[in-house]
Structure formats: C-alpha cells, structure tokens
Amino acid sequence: MHTVSLGKSGPMVSAIGLGCMGMSGMYGPSDCAxxxxxxxxxxxxxxxxxxxxxxxxxxxxxxxxxEALKGRNRDQVQVSVKFGALRDAAGAWIGYDARPKAVRNxxxxxxxxxxxxxxxxxxxxxLDPDVPIEDxxxxxxxxxxxxxxxxxxxxxxxxxxxxxxxxxxxxxxxQIEYSLISRGIEKEILPTCRExxxxxxxxxxxxxxxxxxxxxKDAAKSGDYRAVSxxxxxxxxDRNLALVEALRRVADAKGVTVAQIxxxxxxxxxxxxxxxxxxRSRDRLAEALGSQAVRLExxxxxxxxxxxxxxxxxxxxxxxxxxxxxxxxxxx
Length: 332
Fold this sequence. Notes:
Keywords: Oxidoreductase. Residues 15-307 form the NADP-dependent oxidoreductase domain. Helix 1 (32-44) packs across helix 2 (60-69), helix 3 (100-114) crosses helix 4 (133-145) and helix 7 (237-254) packs antiparallel against helix 10 (298-307). This protein has 332 residues and is α/β, with parallel strands linked by helices. The chain contains twelve helices and twelve strands. It has helices at 32-44, 60-69, 100-114, 133-145, 159-166, 189-196, 237-254, 258-268, 282-289, 298-307, 320-323, 327-330, and strands spanning 3-5, 12-14, 17-19, 49-53, 78-83, 85-87, 93-96, 119-124, 149-155, 171-177, 199-203, 273-277. 48% of the residues are buried. Helix content is 37%, strand content 17%.
C-alpha cells in the first residue's frame, strides 16, 4: 500500500482509505462480524485511514470500529471522525450543531465509543449556519492543544469557508464527494484546496455503488438511502446505468473491473486526493484495493472521459432538502 501526505500539514496515510458508514445500516442491513473482518483485512493490507461519523448508526459505527481496533497498534491507524449532525430516535436528520460546547461534548462521547485517547482528524460534518466556522475550528483547535485531537479537517464546504477556517488553524483535508459522475469540486473547491495545501479525502467514489459495476435496479433493500437518492430514481437510473455499461467496456478492454477503473480515475486526479472506499465485505475490499495496480495512461483517461463525460449523470447527488445544507453546493 502506497502512503501519501494528507495535505501539506497532515499525517502520512494510506493512498486509499476505508469509509465505514455503510457498516452501520445506511445501505440496508449489515453484518457486524463481516464488517469487523473487513476492517481487519483492510488494516492487514496496509490501509491506515478509517473514516466514520459519530452519527452513523447513532454511535454504532464508532463502537464497531472501536471493537475492530482492540489489540491493534493505535499509532499505525488514523481515525477520521465527522461530528455535528443531529438525529432523532427514528433516525431522521434534524439539523446540525457545531457550537464550541457541542464540539467538546461530541468529542468526549466519540473518544469513549472508540476506546481511544485521541482522534487523528476531527471535522464538522456540515457547516452549521448558526455558528461561524471560525468558532467551530477554534474549539477543535483547543482540543488539539489539549491532546484529544491531532489534526483538523472540513467536510462539504465551499471556498470561502475553507479560507476562513484556514485562518484559525491548519486544515489538513476537505472531505467531499468526488467521482466520475460527481465532479463539481473541480471548478473552485479543488483549486482552493491546492492553493492552500489542503488535501482531499474523496467519498462516494463509486457514487454509492451506482458506478461499482455491481448495483442492479432490483437491489434496493429496506432502510437503503438509495431509495431516496435522485440518481437511483426512475427517469434517472437507466441513463446512469447506461454510463456504467459504457465504462464497463473501457474496463473490460483494460482487463479490470468497473469499480477498479472508477477508483483508479479518482487516484489519477492527483496525489493530494485520497479515495475512501465504502467496502462492507472482504471481497469488495479486495476488489477496491486491486485498483492500486491499475495504471491509467492518457489514452485510458480519454476513453473514460468519452464513456462518462463531465456532467453526464442524471439527477443530483443528494435530494434537494439535503443540498440546501451543503455549503459546498451553495458556494462551490
């Protein structure tokens, strides 16, 4: 496993990270034993970056990772945690809270659930419209000084917020959606990060499985977020799956899978971009990590671009109600 620096001021991390959200029910039922086995397989393969959120499964995901990390060398793993999203007992999203006292509260529960003494990268999940980003980052900076946090990151924010945050404390990375069919960051957000020496951890690099080469229209399960995702809806999904089939022809010609060529494309966009793969099983993890062996030449990239042109996807990446909360969409 190759390693890269997460931004100019961040830690050395594996060139591919493991996004653990799907292990806590966002895409239908999950198997805890297989999830832990998958985390162990990732760590054994050299993956060092594990990404979670304290609201994934209302703490379930952190406890799952905590269980998986027992007996492991803590200094060889970087745990990235998002906080601030609020959920009710039914699992509904009810807003964000990034006040300084909320930062301290969320962090204390995260440390307990993970069973660790510090968090490697801590970040607000979204911009709280009622709290200046300077206040939130300042509160995390206090936790850095206290030794509870090593580095500060951001998530789904636009250029102005990135710049304001960076005046308070060094920001190591921005976590944001980026894939062949979600390329909005290329206009302003990615150039801003590069200007400031901030890395990118790219989530949903397979667009929630849509461009994995495995997803089928009859694959939806109870409790699966994709049931409300615009790109999976009638009127959009067939057009998007046609893009997948075009990409499959490129992948077949190169002797790799659709998922591998899609992940390799993200990697090829720059050494400052670390894809987070959301594998929930060991076989999907093995496939994703196989993308490291894929080398895309100029003619490969051109073929991929022809198969999946920029802005070719049908439907937004989130429902409209969710897009309203994304600073990255308002100011991207």
